[in-house]
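Bumping with the actual sequence this time:
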Amino acid sequence: GPADRATARGAAAGTAAGTAAFCLGTWRARQLLSRPVTPPVETTPWHLMPAARVLERLGSTDGGLSREEAERRAGRDTTSEQPARIGLPAAFIEELANPLTPVLAAGAALSAAVGSRTDAALVAGITGASALVGAVQRVRTDKALEELFARSAIGARVRRGGAERLVAAGDLVAGDVVVLRSQEVVPADCRLLRGEGLEVDESSLTGESLPVAKDPAPVVAAQIADRRSMLYEGTTVSAGTAVAVVVATGSATEVGRSLATARQKAPDTGVESRLHALTKTSLPLALGSAAAVAGSGLLHGRPLADTLASAVNLAVASVPEGLPLLVNAAQLAAARRLADHGALVRNPRTIEALGRADVLCFDKTGTLTEGDLQLAAVSDGRRELPADRLDAACKQILGAALRATPPARTSEPMEHQTDRAVVAGARRAKVAVRQGASQWRRTDALPFEPSRAYHATAGRTSRGMLLSVKGAPENVLERCTRLREGGGGKDGGKKKELDAAARERLTGAAEELAGAGRRVLAVAERPLREGEDLTDEAVAGLTFLGFVALADPVRSSAAPATARLRAAGVQTVMLTGDHPATADAIAATVSEDPDQKVCTGAEIDELSDEELDELLPTLDVIARCSPHHKVRIVQAYQRIGRVVAMTGDGANDAPAIRLADVGIALGRRGTPAATAAADLVVGDDRLETIIAALLEGRAMWGSVRDALAILVGGNLGEVAFSVLAAALTGSSPLNARQIMLVNLLTDLAPALAIAVREPATEAGERLLSEGPDRSLGAGLSQEVLLRGATTTLGAGLAWGAARLTGRGRRAGTVALASVVGTQLAQTLLTGGLDRNVLTAGIGSAAALVGVIQTPGVSQFFGCTPLGPVAWGITLGSITTATLLGAAAAPVVRRLAPAPADWSPPEQTGDAGPSERPGE
C-alpha cells in the first residue's frame, strides 16, 4: 500500500543519505566498500528511558561531557565513518595488490629461471616504481579529500566543559549534549532532553512526508517513525529548538547501519567495470603472445633458454602496469578544477557519475532565473497595476499580504524568498501592515509548509480579530466563499458571494498573471471570533481580496545552457512549486521547443508507478512539485535505468538530493541540510556551473579513454611488432630491458599527464557527447587498435630499414627508438598544447636519447649509440607512421558503427535510453 511504499522510499533515501554524507570515494574507500561489513546492532531502548536515566546510563550531565572525557571517548570510538589517512608504506603495499602484479612477478621469476637475474631485477624494479608512483598519488589524494571533507563537514553545537562550542559531526561521541535549531541537520542519533515547538523532517529516514512533532517524554514504540523522543542522524529540524544527548555515532546510527548493509553489495561503477574487463583481457593476451614467440623460436631452431626469455619479455610487455592509477588521478584532477570554479565535489566518484548523467532535475529559482524575486504587480482579479503605481485598493491588498507574512527579524533573513519580496515591495510602495486594518497587532500564525501552501496570521485590530492569508491561488481560492469588490473605502469595499462563475474568472486571472512567468499569490481575509483558535480548519470562509504577482527575471545565459544539455542527450526537467502557467512561461523562454509538456504534482499523485515511468521521459516541467514528489520522480527515473542529477537548496529537498545518482546543492541559497546531503555544492547557483561540472564528468571519460589507449594500445603495438618479427626471425628484436624501458617512458608520465589534463574549452561540445560506452566501449576499442597499428607500423618500418643498412643490434636499437617515438608522437597529438603533456612527452624523448647515446647505459639496455643515418631512419619511420595513423583515424571512426549511449543491463518501460535525443 502507499504507506509501505513511503517506508521503502524512506529507507532508500536513508541509505543514500549516509552514502552522500560520508563516502569519500578514493580507491582505498572503494576497496573498503567492497568488503563485507557487519552492521553493529544497537539494542538499548533509549526512547523508553526517562531523560535523566539516559544521561546516567551514558555517564553525562545536562551540561555535557568534560573536554578530557570527550577526548578519551573519542580515542576508543571505532564507529567514525571518516577513515584515517593512509601512510605511504601501506599505500605502496595496496598498490601492489592488484591482478596485474602476479603476472609481472611470474615474469620476473621466469626471467631469473632462464638465467637473466638482471632482467628479473629490472622487472621487479619497474613494477615497484609504478606502485610507488601510485602510492604517492594515493597519499596525495587522501590528503586532498581530507581537506575537502573538512570544508564540507556537518557542524554541531555541543556543550563541553560547561561551554557551548562548534565541532564537526565526526568528532561527536556518545554522551555529548548538542543544541539544535531550525533548519539544522541532526549530526548523530540523539535522545531528546528538551524541545520547544520542535518539528523534525524525517522523510529521508521514514518516508513520512510531513514534519514530525517531537517530545522528550519516554514513548513505547516499535517503529522508528513513532519514537517521538528520538532524533536521528541526517534528519532536519523543521521548526523549534532542541537540546539532546548523543546516543550513537557513525556506523552505529540508523543511517550508518543502512549504509553498512548497502556496502556488502556495492556495485562497480562504469570505469571500474571497464578496467576489470581490460585486466581480464590483458592476461590471455600476455599468454598468447608469449606462446606465439616461443613457438616461432622453436620453429626457427633457437635455443630453448633464449626462446623462453623472449616469451617472458612479451608477457611482461603486454601488461599495462599503470591501469589502477589513471582513474583516481583523473577524478581528483577534475574535482580540483571544479573547486577552483566554486563547485565543491565532496566525493570524487561524483565526477564519474556526472559523466553518465542523462537526466537533470532542477528548480528555476536562481538556476534559470537571477534568483532575485521582486514585487511586480498587484491585481484585484479584474485589473492589474504595476508595483510602482498602486492605488488605494491595491495598497489594501498589499497590506493584507504583508500581514500574512512572517515578521522580519534583524538578526537573520526571512526563510522564504516570496516573503522577502512582499516585504521589500511593500516598503518601496510605502505600505504598512496597518493599511486597511487600523491598530493591527499580530497574535498568532500558521507558518507556510509545502503541504499547506499558505501562510496565515491572526491579529487584533480596532474592529476585532482578523485572519489574513497569503498563498497559492488554487489553495486559497478553494477556502474563499466571498469576494470583495471596490476596495479602498472605509468599510473595505462591498462583499458578495463567490459563485462558480466568479471563481472561474479569478482562476483565469491568476493563470493570466502566471502566464507572463510571474509567481502569483492569492490574498484573503476574514474576521475571527473572539477566542477562536487559529488552526487549519479555521482557514475557511475567507473573503478574496486580490493577487500579488512576483517576478524573477530569467538569466540571459539560461537558454544556451539548456540547449547545450539537450544536445548532449541530457533530459532537463524543471521541478518547481510555482503555478503551472508560471512554470510553463519560464520554460518556454529557455527552450527552443514552444510546446513544453507540463504536469503537476497532483496529477503525479494519481498515477501508478508504471504510468509514471512511461510519462516521465516526455515531460519538461513539473509544477506544484513538493519534496515527496521529487523523491518519487528520482526513484522513477532510476527505475527505468536513467542516471539522475538532482539540484535543490531547501531542507525539504535533501531526501531527493540524497537519493539521486548525483546530488547537487545550490550553495548560495542552500540550507545546511541540502548541502550535507549533496555530492556536489555549486557556489554560484548557476546552471552554467552545473554544465561545467557535467563537462568535467564527460571530459573525465574522454581523458581516461585516451590514457587507456596510450597504455593498452602502445603495449598492443609492442606485442604485435614483436610477434611479427619473431615469426620472421625466430626471436623478438626487443629484449626484456628494452621492453621495460619502453613501458617506463611511454606509460607512466605521458598517460598520467593525459588523464589529468584540463579539457579544452573549444572542445566543449564534443566533450558533452562523451559517455561511458561512447568513451570506453567502441571508442576505446578504436583508439587501442589504431594506436597499436600505428606503433607496429612505425617500429616495423624502422626495424626493416635498419636491418637492410646495418647490424642486428643497431636494428633493435632503431626499433626501440621508433616504438617509443611513435607512441610519444601520438600522445602529443592527443594532448595538444597541454603543458603537462608536452613536458612529459619531451622529457621521455630526452630520456630515451640519453639512454641510447650514453656509453655503458646503452650497453646495459642492449642498445648501441646511433649515428645520423640511424636517427634519420627512426625519425622518418615515426613521422610516416604518425601521419598515416592520423589520416586513418577519421576514416576508422566513420566506418565503425556508432556507439550506443549508456544502457543499463535491465531496461523497463517504453522510454529507455535508445529514445533519448541525438540517437
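The C-alpha cells above came from a reply further down the thread. Residues 1-41, 78-83, 259-268, 898-919 have pLDDT under 50 and may be disordered.
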